[in-house]
Amino acid sequence: MSIALLFNAVLVFLSLIENLFTRIPKTQIAAPKTILISGGKMTKALQLARSFHAAGHRVILVETHKYWLTGHRFSKAVSRFYTVPTPQDSADAYTQALLEIVQREQVDVYVPVCSPVASYYDALVKAALSPYCEVFHTDAETVKALDDKYSFNQLAQSLSLSVPKSFYITAPEQVLQFDFSQETHSYILKSIAYNSIYRLNLTRLPCPSYEDMKAFVYSLPISSENPWIMQEFVAGQEFCTHSTVRNGELRLHCCCESSAFQVNYRHVENPAILDWVRQFVKGLNLTGQFSFDFIQTADGAVYAIECNPRTHSAITMFYNHPGVADAYLDTVPLPEPMQPLPTSKPTYWLYHELWRFTEIRSLSDLRTRLQTLFQGTDAIYQIHDPLPFLMVHHWQIPLLLLKNLEQMKGWVRIDFNIGKLVELGGD
């Protein structure tokens, strides 16, 4: 760690020296806005802050009190940084804190960069903030409907869009009594409520034996209060997307191949997925940011697996696109949604890639890892804004680790992308 700190400190120092001699002229616009962005610990919030700042706007960054140490607060794109109460602890206190920031800083637009839990609360604050600023987020009922994997499935079907066959599960017995002999595909169980641990479990149903299946389903916290979805397993390539939408118009879109633990983003053109998303957001007349997960089969058919009504980390692929702010703020229709520039490199998180070097078992593995490093770009580091890279890795994450050690708490993994320790029962 000390070697990494020395290397990164030198890198950042040289970047700062470089900036003294190569100042980038700030964009001047007629009517700059003040943009409030939440989720300050996450790279996607940093990316949006940089995009709005580069377009000439003023950015206020917000996070909950627990993450006051976010390294992104040191970005030159951030004018002010505030912390607020955790919304699930007190929705009223969270709303009041945001309202005070909006009024104090004369915010024009609030762009929530939500955690899975916070997306609902950011919809609830819309009524309180709307008299003072625009809230670029959908309403609470729509958030609930889209976040619910089964409800989303039914909405897509109502628009004649392709989705896997799905069943609403509120008790393990429903799975045990299901007649799998009538099905041509296997199934998987997924928690409707976001769960950072169970989301990685893709056990196929039916299990080899009834006893195996009984042990599996009873190991899951399935209940009427915590419903799950049993979804047809569709074999194919997984994709994830980010979409920025205003009044049903898809204004910004990116798509990349997906995996269970997604920390690499390379844009791919996929007209079938683009068309699916365009039809869905238009059909519901949505406004806000939406992430979709898809499976594309060998014959080219696409099936939407789920929708998350919030920003996707794939937006880091827009790191060099000059039009991101306009995609959010302008109301003039676009002939086509903005997509990452052809010159955009795939994005990754350096410390995740370095850890993967411990998994190298062949020359081919080494070649793959080196290609990822040299053909892509780190999502946090930018030569003209280097401090977040240093502070995330040598301030934010180390202090979170020390706090957990002090409290004798464990963690599942370190996620530099979302700037946190993934914990059992965590936020």
> Number of DSSP helices?
14
Q: On the 0-100 scale, what is the average pLDDT?
A: 92
Q: Which assembly state applies to the chains in this document? A: single chain
Portion of residues in beta strands equals 15-25%
Judging from the principal axes of the Cα atoms, what is the shape? globular
Main sheet, how many strands, which sense, barrel?
A: 5 strands, parallel
N-C termini distance: 27 Å
Please characterize this protein's 3D structure.
The two termini are 27 Å apart. α1 (2-21) runs antiparallel to α14 (387-406) and α4 runs antiparallel to α6. Strands 3-2-1-4-5 form a five-stranded parallel beta sheet, with helices on both faces. The chain has a four-stranded antiparallel beta sheet with strand order 10-9-12-13. Strands 6-8-7 form a three-stranded antiparallel beta sheet. The longest helix is centred in the first third of the chain and has 20 residues, at 2-21. The chain is an alpha/beta fold. It is globular. The protein has helices at 2-21, 43-54, 91-105, 118-124, 126-129, 140-147, 149-158, 172-176, 210-218, 271-284, 324-329, 350-356, 363-375, 387-406, and strands at residues 34-37, 58-64, 80-84, 109-111, 134-135, 166-169, 187-191, 228-232, 237-246, 249-257, 264-265, 288-296, 302-308, 347-348, 377-378, 413-415, 420-422.
